[in-house]
Amino acid sequence: MLELFAAKPETPIYSVPKRDGRKKINTVLMGTWLGVEKTQGSFLHVRTAGPDGWVHKNDTRPDRVLKVFFIDVGQGDGALIETPENKRVLIDGGPGRHTYNYLTKWQYQYLLNQANSTVHIDAIIISHYDADHYGGLIPILEDRRFTFGTIYHNGIARFRTNTKKKKRPTRYDQDLGTTTGRGKNRVLKTQFSSLTELLALEQTGEDAFQGIFRRFAHACRDAKKEGRLGKLKLLKQGGAVPELTDSTHALSAEVLGPVLNVNSGKPVFKWFSNSSHTRNGHSIVLRLSHHSQSMLLGGDLNSASERHLLDHHGGAQPFHVDIAKSCHHGSSDFSIAFIQAIDAAATIISSGDNEGHSHPRADAVGAVAKYSNAVLPLIFSTELARSVNSEGDILFGMINLRSDEQDVVLAQMKEAGANRDLWDSYMVPFQPTKHHKA
Ligand SMILES: [Zn+2]
User: Does the residue 28 lie in any domain?
Assistant: First the structure.
């Protein structure tokens, strides 16, 4: 079957081979797969994920676009990138089973439905080891229908917190490992890159790891044993992500953080006041470029680490992008200078109903709007995109990004009526339309 892809930000599908608005049966986003069954004049009859129908030739393109799916994982981060080369890269996986369910029951169901088929994930990038970013990767790693290339991570492990009954090995003075120095000069020395180094941190017979981290380490160990996993690798400033690098399609990834210090000739992590600030603060910060467009994914940075990154990168301004994922789910712990440096035309906030966090915070939402130079800055929220049907079932709120050689479109699905998809879509940067004028 000839494969084509939708070319328009919102591409119409008709029940008849002509552009007849009343016969429009569906709208698919730019880059959506179209399987051509037959041709009639300028129209093609195509199979799509929704109802099959007719599409105009001029609304199709021969190759893929860049797609990013910001999955509604609740309170957490999880995004799937599909590149124009059809590489699949997960950036975090949220907590729980949202990402797993999305991949198996929706995105790759058509592949998994075929007997003995497997789905290859070319790379996983774990911004940092907090459960709301990597806990949801465990069921995916455990499922033998999935194979994996490289797991990139920030290298900071999680050891158990000391309790009366159970204590971590005494060589780790913190739940992130061994620290040295005082005050501003305090640093975390313990780190790992490969799977072997990870497993060595938990020596035989020891119960050193925090529970979810232990499950993750063992899931990696087992996937490796079964021949389903390539390698683990610490990713830091200046590192490379070949899976997101493709010169043919003008796609590249720059790693802006974590920025490590050097102590007695060895790379170490600056200690940011406590364990939580330190592991969040050293999140992997990725700047993705596609043609003239750029996107920043910065895990759970906080104000101290944002200043650390700005100091390191100086006037180079690599943080300025068109689209940014809001750091730390829209927490109040942000630096205005950093938001100004980003100056995004569109921001995506990934968060959930979690009374303990109350993300996103009002000041964070206000800041990304105020410190953007866009005429109309766009702010998307997985929590706002989420909808509930009349039976009370949660229909998860995905934010879709599609990017071709020229344009970026961001879209969320409207609460669908009948058997068709309705989109709320925006070009980035967004230009005011007639009805916005006073
Ligand atoms: Zn988080």
Answer: no
